[in-house]
Amino acid sequence: PEAIGGMLPAHLDGLATLPRVPSASGPVHIPGVELAVRIAAAAALAAAVMLGASLLGPRLSGVLLAFPITGSVLPVFTRALYGADATARLLAGFLSGLFAFAVFHFAIAVMLEPLGTAAAYPLAVVAALAATGVVMRVRRTAWLRRERREGRMPQ
Fold first, then answer.
1. What is the pTM of this model?
2. Which is nearest to 28 in space by CA: 71, 90, 100?
3. With b meaning 16 or more CB within 10 Å and e meaning fewer, what string describes 46-69?
4. CB 144: neighbour CB atoms within 10 A?
5. How far apart are CA 46 and CA 52, in angstroms?
6. Going by C-beta distance under 8 Å and a sequence separation of 6 or more, which residues neighbour residue 115?
7. Which residue stretches of the chain have pLDDT < 50?
8. Model confidence pLDDT, tens digit, residues 110-121
């Protein structure tokens, strides 16, 4: 519980400062070779973390196993192949989704024992969906404030 309390303000601040980039015009075709290389890079990172798990301990290796794969492999490929705007959109989506991911797992940690599996998981899904709504609201509000401050939108 203390960790989520410390993470929440920093995460919301990060969401509020994300740049707004133009939307992509449509889906991007990702060649099969690129997917294979992404999978190999992710597998190599996962293997390195698993091999070092006895030194890192279960908590740190669990965190490192999830974050580096999504947080480092995807942006590298996206930046190299599709540019800065695509990478900014990817990271904005990643950061937004990470918030709901954290809320879901926090809810499970708090509710699983007192409520049981049948109640805790649906409630955690509801909490994650609510967190997604909060994230969307924070991002939109921050964008509107920035647009008004920079004179691109009427007060």
1. 0.65
2. 90
3. eeebeeeeeebeeeebeebbeebb
4. 12
5. 10
6. 123
7. none
8. 999 999 999 999
The Cα–Cα gap between 155 and 142 comes to 14
pLDDT (tens digit per residue) in 85-95: 888 888 888 88
Structure tokens at 15: 């969401």
Q: How many residues does the chain have?
A: 155
Q: Can you give the pLDDT at residue 120?
A: 96
Helix (H, G, I), strand (E, B) or coil at 70: helix
Could you tell me the two tokens for 95?
Answer: 């950061």
Give Dmax (Cα) for the chain: 57
Instruction: Give residue 114's region: left, alpha or beta (phi > 0; psi -120 to 50).
Output: alpha
Residues 6+ apart with CB under 8 A from 107: 120, 123, 124, 127, 128
Burial readout 90-124 (b: 16 or more C-beta within 10 A, e: otherwise): bbbeebbebbbebbbebbbebbeeeeeeeebbebb
Residue 7, judged by CB atoms within 10 A of its CB (0-12, 13-18, 19+), counts as: middle
CA distance 139 to 154: 19
